[in-house]
Amino acid sequence: MISLSEVTQLFVADGWLDALAHGALVTLQISAGAFVLGLSIGLVVALIKLRGPRWLVRLANLYTTLYRAVPELLLILLLYYAGTDLLNMLMAALGRPSITVNGFAAAVLVLGIVQGAYSAEILRGAILAIPHGQIEAARSFGIERWLLLRRMILPSMLPFALAGLSNLWLVLVKDSALISIVGYSELLSVGKQAAGSTKHYLVFYLAVAAFYFIITLLSNGAWRLLERRINRWLPQH
Amino acid sequence: MDFSWINSFAGELLHGLGITLKLLLLSGFFGFILAVLVALGRLSRNPLISAPLRAFTSVFRGTPLLVQIYILYYGVGSLFASYPPIRGSFLWPYLRDGFWYVALALILCVGAYVGEVLRGGLRAVPKGELEAARAYGMKRFMVLRRVWLPRALQLSRPTLVGECVLLLKATALASTVAVTDLLGAANLVRAQTLKVYEPLLAVALIYIVLAFVIEYGCSRLGKTPQRTA
User: Fold this and answer.
1) Which of A20, A68, A77 to mutate to test the interface with B (most CBs of B within 10 A)?
2) Label partner for A126 (CA 20 to 30 A): which of A206, B26, B114, B196?
3) End-to-end CA distance of chain B
4) Residue pLDDT, tens place only, A23-34
5) Which helix or strand (DSSP H or E) is residue A70 part of?
6) How many of the other CB atoms lie within 10 Å of CB of B46?
7) Which of B70, B79, B183 is closest, CB to CB, to A73?
8) Can you state the percent helix, strand and coil of chain A, rounding each to 5?
9) CB proximity under 8 Å: A 197-226 to B
10) Rounded CA gap, A115 and A21, in Å?
11) Long-range Cβ pairs for the range B36-40 (8 Å, 24+)
12) H or E stretch covering A119
């Protein structure tokens, strides 16, 4: 086993704690970016599913079912390679030299596309949960479609979507660990490096787990605050 | 797109499918048993039972499965490797194989996630039904076996089906610790034929079929018509 002084040596003097903290920050950035992207994709897909033309609805259904049935790891591998390949093909077609894809952007894009499928279902359910009379009332005031969405549908679906979205955020933070497979240096990749170069596998993977756990606990608290704020005008049970 | 490699690698893919299914069934079965115990324990009034289980669920639900697998496989596994008595024992072939570490991680994870689902289901069973069962003179275990658990399963069925599909997807992480499950087989084909997409797409199709089989199978399974009073 490992002694306490060895642990402080590893984490403080050798600077692995800083490296892990930085990795955690990158994980948070990737997750936040992917969350925003996923929500945007999800909102568009949810609206298509609710009101779009039939062929688009079919396409949207295909997207949400397929992306929820295939393992995230496989999707990440597939999208990562396909994405870089397509981009380079495009560059070649334009007569430009091939480029290396920014790992951060790729990670955000890949996770965002996967998340979009889940958030579409959550948002669709939340929009359907709005009492229909409210939307009719807004319409009868002559409100325009875009304004209806912005002032009426989006705010009033939020309380219904919140539980699902907070869950999704936690799933996303955990899924972001899969990015380490394609080699962008987020939290788990840093942990892998640390474990590999010091040979203290158990210590460093436990430390990585602790970082993830702290992120989850903190975001649980943040979501609870947000929930309290958004639900403040809802009828109390 | 060129799928001509499929004939020469059909054996690998089939073997990978077998491993994936084995992981799914093994961790589904034992994980479910663990989940029932966790759910009952968390409902216990004794804080010595419920508090540790609460910690267990929140830790396992709060960290990525991949990290858990790494902790078990690389972390605990490397500890095993450093003890010569274990290296020499008959258990070593099992302890060296990533399969059992992944299976253990999945079982613990299912215990945590499904335990939480079942806890909700168990709490949602109307008290009157349990009281009625007690009034018939059923002992506590029989109430659990005949009324409480079946009703809880019925109530949480949609979520449980979802968890099954999630478990299927989670088994793909086995490929990260050199287990040649379905995704591992695809990676093998990729390495040997230098094709990037075709193996991944083929395997994705198999996962989709499996997910639909689970969803369809489960939706048929529980469709006994309910008498409503």
Assistant:
1) A77
2) B114
3) 58
4) 999 999 999 999
5) none
6) 8
7) B183
8) 85, 0, 15
9) 199, 201-203, 205-206, 208-209, 212-213, 216-217
10) 25
11) B36/B115, B36/B118, B36/B149, B37/B111, B37/B115, B38/B111, B38/B112, B38/B115, B38/B118, B38/B119, B39/B115, B39/B116, B39/B118, B39/B119, B39/B121, B39/B122, B40/B122, B40/B144
12) helix A103-129
Question: Are the beta carbons of A123 and A43 closer than 8 angstroms?
Answer: yes
Is B187:B175 a contact under the CB 8 Å cutoff?
yes
Please tell me the pTM assigned to this model.
0.89
CB A183 within 8 A of CB A80: no
User: What is the C-alpha separation between A159 and A138, in angstroms, rounded?
Assistant: 19
> At B97, is the pLDDT very low, low, confident or very high (cuts 50, 70, 90)?
confident
Task: Give the pLDDT band of residue B221 (cuts 50, 70, 90).
Answer: low
A35 sits in which H/E element: helix A16-51
Chain B residues in contact with A203 by the CB 8 A cut-off are 75
Nearest to A110, CA basis, from A45, A48, A185, A31:
A31
Give the residue from B59, B70, B181, B187 with the most A CB atoms within 10 Å of its CB, the best one to mutate.
B70
Neighbours of A233 (CB within 10 A): 7
Q: Which candidate, A69, A65, A89, A85, places its Cα nearest to that of A77?
A: A85
Q: Which site among A88, A205, A223 would you substitute to test the B interface, given the most B Cβ atoms closer than 10 Å to its Cβ?
A: A205
3-state secondary structure of B129: helix
Residues 6+ apart with CB under 8 A from A15: none
Q: For residues A150-170, b (16+ Cβ closer than 10 Å) or e, as one string?
A: eebbeebbbbbbbebbbebbb
Q: What is the pLDDT of residue A200?
A: 86
The phi and psi torsions of B32 (rounded to 5 degrees) equal -65, -45
CA distance A191 to A103: 18
Chain-chain contact of B62 with A73 (C-beta, under 8 angstroms): no
- The DSSP-derived string for A90-118 is HHHHTTPPP-PPPHHHHHHHHHHHHHHHH
Contact B170 A206 (CB under 8 A): no
Query: What ipTM, to 2 d.p.?
Result: 0.87
Burial class of residue B5 in the structure, from the number of CB atoms within 10 Å of its CB (0-12 exposed, 13-18 middle, 19+ buried): middle
Supply the DSSP symbol for B146. Answer: I
Closest CA to B167 of B126, B114, B90, B95: B114
Which range in A107-111, B142-146, B222-226 is most confidently predicted, on average pLDDT? Answer: B142-146
